[in-house]
Write a structure and sequence with these properties.
The chain is an alpha+beta fold and about 160 residues long. Helices cover about 30% and strands about 35% of the residues.
Length: about 160
């Protein structure tokens, strides 16, 4: 029996994180999930917008990552959509992250969930918060790109 290739490697993106933070470093971590969560992820029922990563007892956890259960979920399973999910990384990487997070202004945010070799991985970033004027610059750049695209599109007609 051969495995089916995944149709889309991306499950969910956290677009709000790119707007609110500057990403310093990116890391890939495995996730401890229950069966119903994996099935719901296959259906795209995942939302990362309000997610953030915390460190407890030298381990990483994702909070605020919402995986909505499917309607056809089993009756013997009690699904919790906003359950705290553990991230799996090597101890030396976690220790390095703990040292960086303790510095002023740094935090860990989940960027996306994706498939890798049949497993769900969470890409997290060591991030520094943006000031209000930086967010305004981001908006200005985005609107400028849209105007250029519109001009090119109307010119090509």
């Amino acid at each position: 029996m051969s495995k089916k290739p995944e149709t889309s490697s991306r499950i969910a993106d956290n677009k709000k994180a790119a707007f609110n933070y500057f990403f310093e470093e990116r890391f890939e971590a495995g996730m401890v999930l229950q069966g119903w969560e994996v099935k719901a992820a296959r259906e795209g029922k995942v939302q990362l917008t309000d997610g953030y990563v915390v460190i407890r007892d030298g381990e990483l956890y994702v909070l605020g990552c919402m995986i909505n259960p499917l309607k056809s979920a089993s009756t013997h399973v009690n699904p919790d959509a906003i359950r705290t999910k553990k991230l799996l990384m090597k101890k030396d990487e976690i220790k390095r992250l703990i040292g960086k997070v303790e510095q002023k202004g740094y935090t860990l945010v989940p960027i996306n969930l994706h498939w890798k070799n049949g497993r769900i991985k969470c890409e997290i970033a060591l991030a520094k918060g943006k000031a209000e004027h930086d967010k305004r610059d981001t908006i200005k750049d985005r609107e400028g790109k849209r105007e250029v695209e519109r001009a090119m599109k109307s010119r090509n007609r």
